[in-house]
Predict the structure.
Amino acid sequence: MKAKNFFEMTNEELVNKINELKANLFNLRFKNAINQLSNPKEIEVCKRDIARAMTILRQRELGISEEPVKATKKKATKKTAKAE
């Protein structure tokens, strides 16, 4: 994933994504150990995604970056008042 995608996630989503990526990394390592992994580069990509997500969480803890505010879906209202 691109870092931009991680910045758009909330802290809770990031924690869930990290847990998901760690489980995926475990499975990739297991497949690699029994020679069933078709592309060993997947391990490196997974490790980097974990590092990106953890870095963004740490930046938010230190106040370097902010958690995104999820926009709520609101209906657009038309302004009928004329400018005077």
About this structure: Residues 15 and 44 are 20 Å apart (CA to CA). The mean pLDDT is 86. The radius of gyration is 20 Å.
